[in-house]
Amino acid sequence: FENKDKFENAYPADFIAEGVDQTRGWFFTLHAIAVMLSETSDEIKKINAKVGNKGIAFKNVISNGLVLDKNGNKMSKRLGNGVDPFSTIEQFGADAARWYMISNAAPWDNLKFNAEGIDEVRRKFFGTLYNTYTFFVMYANIDQFNYSEAEIALKSRPEIDQWIISLLNTLSKEVDSFYADFEPTKAARAIQDFVDAHLSNWYVRLSRRRFWRSDNSDDKLSAYQTLYTCLVTIAKLMSPIAPFFADRLYNDLNQATHKEAFESVHLADFPAYHDDLVNKPLEERMQMAQDISSLVLSLRKKVSINVRQPLSKILLPILDKNFKHQIEQIKDLILSETNIKDIEYITDTAGFIKKKVKPNFKSLGAKVGKDMKLVAEAITNFSQDDITKLETEGSIPVLDTKYLILDTDVEIIAEDVPGWQVANLGKLTVALDVTITNELKQEGISRELINRIQNLRKAKGFEVTDKINVKVSDHSFLSGAVRNNLSYICAEILADSILIDNQLNEGEIAQIDENEILIAISKI
User: Fold this and answer.
1) Are 62 and 14 in contact (CB under 8 A)?
2) What gap in Å lies between CA 495 and CA 520, rounded to an integer?
3) Helices 243-257 and 218-238 meet at what angle, rounded to 10?
4) What's the Cα-to-Cα distance from 376 to each of 367, 392, 403, 411, 425, rounded to whole Å?
């Protein structure tokens, strides 16, 4: 029996993969041969007994689905709808193509292949992750961060750092479980959601000012250590699906810090789950902040009020006795993210926010059957008190308690109030004051001016640490906003001075609220 030791270590296979059309020709044949050998070969019998095998050729099987064209037709030479994999990889890269195929559909499902989807993955996922990396590297180079400082204990770090580390550990556990269960699609989607929704669009954006500061405080060091940990861990988690990108990301980070001794991400240890780093109440609290911010931003978009325009307040109906306490802990994050001045709480929404309820027929179908019409009518006629009870208690009886309606059996919609915009997500309701006072308007103009100057700095190739002098043309809508917010504007754009010049005839043309102005900036 040749190569007996190698055979023992490789038999039975942990898993095999082949197309769905090979069910009989490959999957069955392997098992049939394994069974026959286990009955006829003494050597195989001994190996089976040694490894605890019962005559099987493999422990798991992945039956790959078919790759179809974007219209759902099977690719064939006759139809001429085939895609050359080599030209696709040359155009988009192997990792982007692989990530698209794995994240778009489970391996055993058919995949409608569309090259536009690969380009979207490259931009939205790989582009977002790369931009997060370049943000880190840019400021790490400025501050010469190389992780040589002592590790800051997690409990000593700001809550936003504790939150992302907690979420990162939760992600590591989930992804490890998905890989172990042969669910690469779920793993890819979980990683992608973390990078896009949490790391880039929340953590980095809310932490930017910590990296901008000129001092080398523990807060800034904590931000560096936390973001580095996230990027290195993501490289490890994604490496089975995107081996080349992950290895480059890992090595580039490691060359700058020498934090880890491995030459490749594929030689590094897979991220371990640390239960003591997970803080579920903090994760829930931060999710609430994200949900509230998302609702406010959607209301801004609905009435076309730019996020750079400050607004006075939002109202939040109190859901339970802990609600206000939870929100107060994340209040500053919400206000910063949505550019709102304050949050106020109301306990009785019946006199202010009106709600209506619609049946969820899909959820109710199996529950009420032939009584659907009667139940739907009862739900539609719910009073404001009935809706409040359903939201707070999670259920309410109908038709003389014949059926118990859950909050998942209906859709609750909040109606707008004059001067306010209202939206809700599940039990959560937000009312946004859309009145813009003259003071708020001027602050909004100053923020728009900051944005135009920052764009000019970037266009001229200025470094983020370069200080500048600024001249702007005199304009009635602008001068008051500049005077009343001068120190704030200067601090944001790193300007020693801003001169309003009614004789200015050179510079770059910028538009703010349909008004054209000239802006001239120079490096000090």
Assistant:
1) no
2) 12
3) 150
4) 12, 21, 12, 12, 21
